[in-house]
C-alpha cells in the first residue's frame, strides 16, 4: 500500500455540499490543499467471509422514538435544500441548489436553532456538496471543478485546510467521479469512485491510503458512513437488480433490507450502530432508523415520514443522541431539509 503525499495550504473559503450535476475547477489555480492517492489497494484484513443468504430483516417493529421535526431551508434557495449530516452538538451540514447550471449547489453549515447559515464552497468549484461532519468538526464531501471535463473530487476540510482526493484507480478522462460521503472523528473517510463501466466502487480513505471495499455480491456499491469505532456501511446493488444496505464490522459484511421494500439505501451510522437511510415501497420513499443492524434475527426498524412530506422522505444522518437529519419533498414539489430531535 503506497501513501498519498498531500500538499496543504490554508484557505479562508467556506465549503459546500453535494448534489452535483457538473462540477469543474481549475486545480492549478486553486490556493487549496491537494491530495491524490497513488494507488488504491485492498487490505488482506478485509478478506471476506461467505455472503449470508439472509437478505430480509424481520418485520418492522412499533416506533421506538418519537420525534419533533423542524424544517431547515437555507436562505439561498426557496425550493431546494438538503441536510446531510449532524454532529453530537447538533451542528448540521448540507447544501442548497439542485446542481444545474442555473441553480448551482452550495454547501452550508448551521447551528441550533438553524437560523444562521455559513456557506461552504470549495474554492473555484462549480458545485460543492458537504456530505458529513464528525464530532471533531471535520467536514467531508465532494465538488465539481471548473476545468474541461467536469471532474468530481472528494474533499475534507479540517481547521480551514482543504484537501481534495482522487483514488488513482479512477479512469482518466472527462466526467470522472470521486465522492467522499462519510467521515469519523479520526478523519477516516469513506466514499466511492466510478469505474470505466460506470459502476460505483466503494473505498475507505485513511492517512492518504485508499482501501477498496468488496461487499459480497455487489455489482455496484457505495460506502456512505463510518462511525467512531470504524464500522463502515453503505448501499449495494446486486446482479439481480436488488438494492440493499450493508455493514462491515469486525471483518464481516452483513446485508440488510427493509421488509417488503422495493429497495433499501443506507446513509449513516452512529456509535450505537444505528443506521439511518431510506427505503422505497409501493407508497413512496420513506426514511428509517435501524437498530441492531448486525443481528439479522433481532433488527429493529422504525419507519420515518416527515409530517409535511408528499410521498418522499429521506433520513441522511443520525448522531449519538438519536437526532436525525434529512430532506423531504412537499406538495409543491419543493425539496426541504429537516432536523428531528427525540426527547428519549
Task: Describe this entry's structure for a reader.
By secondary structure, the protein is mainly beta. It has one domain: TolB, C-terminal domain (Neuraminidase), CATH 2.120.10.30. 0% of the residues lie in helices and 45% in strands. It has no helices and 27 strands. Strands 1, 2, 9, 10, 11 and 12 form a 6-stranded mixed β-sheet that branches. The chain has a 5-stranded mixed β-sheet with strand order 3-16-15-14-13, with no helix packed on it. The protein has a 4-stranded antiparallel β-sheet with strand order 4-27-26-25, with no helix packed on it. The protein starts with 23 loop residues before the first strand and ends with a strand.
Quick recap of the structure?
The chain is mainly beta and 344 residues long. It is built from no helices and 27 strands.
Bulk shape: globular
Distance between the termini: 45 Å
Structural class: mainly beta
Number of DSSP strand runs: 27
Mean pLDDT: 84
- Major sheet: 6 strands, mixed
Uncertain residue segments: 1-62
Radius of gyration: 19 Å
Strand residue percentage = over 45%
Element pattern in H and E: EEEEEEEEEEEEEEEEEEEEEEEEEEE
How many H/I helices? 0
**CATH structural architecture:** 6 Propeller
Give the tally of structural domains: 1
**CATH class designation:** Mainly Beta
| CATH superfamily placement | TolB, C-terminal domain
Report the CATH topology name. Answer: Neuraminidase
Helix fraction bin: under 10%
Write the layout of secondary structure elements.
Elements (H helix, E strand, L loop, with lengths): L23 E2 L7 E2 L5 E2 L26 E5 L8 E6 L5 E5 L9 E5 L6 E4 L6 E7 L5 E8 L5 E7 L2 E5 L12 E6 L5 E6 L5 E7 L2 E4 L5 E9 L5 E7 L4 E7 L2 E5 L6 E7 L5 E7 L2 E8 L8 E5 L7 E7 L5 E6 L5 E7 L3
Parallel strand pairs: 1-10, 2-12, 3-16
Antiparallel strand pairs: 4-27, 5-6, 6-7, 7-8, 9-10, 10-11, 11-12, 13-14, 14-15, 15-16, 17-18, 18-19, 19-20, 21-22, 22-23, 23-24, 25-26, 26-27
Amino acid at each position: 500500500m503506497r501513501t498519498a503525499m498531500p500538499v496543504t495550504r490554508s484557505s479562508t473559503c467556506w465549503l459546500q455540499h453535494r448534489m452535483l450535476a457538473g462540477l469543474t475547477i481549475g486545480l492549478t489555480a486553486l490556493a487549496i490543499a491537494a491530495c491524490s492517492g497513488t494507488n488504491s489497494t485492498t487490505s488482506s484484513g478485509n478478506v471476506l467471509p461467505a455472503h449470508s443468504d439472509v437478505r430480509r430483516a424481520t418485520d418492522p417493529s412499533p416506533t421506538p422514538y418519537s420525534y419533533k421535526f423542524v424544517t431547515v431551508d437555507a436562505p439561498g434557495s426557496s425550493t431546494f435544500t438538503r441536510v446531510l449530516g449532524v454532529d453530537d452538538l447538533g451542528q448540521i451540514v448540507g447544501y442548497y441548489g439542485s446542481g444545474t447550471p442555473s441553480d448551482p449547489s452550495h454547501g452550508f453549515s448551521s447551528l441550533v436553532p438553524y437560523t444562521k447559515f455559513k456557506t461552504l464552497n470549495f474554492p473555484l468549484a462549480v458545485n460543492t456538496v458537504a456530505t458529513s461532519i464528525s464530532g471533531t468538526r471535520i467536514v467531508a464531501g465532494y465538488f465539481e471543478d471548473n476545468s474541461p471535463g467536469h471532474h468530481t473530487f472528494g474533499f475534507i476540510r479540517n481547521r480551514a485546510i482543504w484537501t481534495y482526493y482522487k483514488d488513482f484507480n479512477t479512469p482518466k478522462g472527462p466526467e470522472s467521479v470521486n465522492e467522499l460521503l462519510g467521515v469519523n472523528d479520526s478523519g477516516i473517510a469513506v466514499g466511492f469512485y466510478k469505474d470505466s463501466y460506470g459502476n460505483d466502487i466503494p473505498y475507505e480513505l485513511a492517512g492518504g491510503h485508499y482501501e477498496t471495499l468488496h461487499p459480497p455480491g455487489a455489482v455496484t456499491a457505495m460506502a456512505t458512513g463510518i462511525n467512531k469505532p470504524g464500522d463502515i456501511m453503505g448501499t449495494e446493488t446486486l446482479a439481480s437488480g436488488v438494492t440493499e444496505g450493508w455493514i462491515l464490522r469486525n471483518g464481516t459484511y452483513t446485508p440488510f433490507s427493509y421488509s417488503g421494500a422495493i429497495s433499501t439505501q443506507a446513509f449513516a451510522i452512529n456509535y450505537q450502530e444505528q443506521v439511518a437511510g431510506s427505503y422505497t415501497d409501493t407508497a413512496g420513499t420513506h426514511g428509517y432508523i435501524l437498530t441492531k443492524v448486525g443481528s439479522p434475527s433481532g433488527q429493529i426498524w422504525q419507519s420515518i415520514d416527515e409530517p409535511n412530506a408528499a410521498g418522499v422522505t429521506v433520513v441522511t444522518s443520525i448522531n449519538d443522541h438519536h437526532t436525525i437529519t434529512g430532506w423531504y419533498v412537499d406538495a409543491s414539489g419543493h425539496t426541504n431539509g429537516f432536523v428531528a430531535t427525540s426527547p428519549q
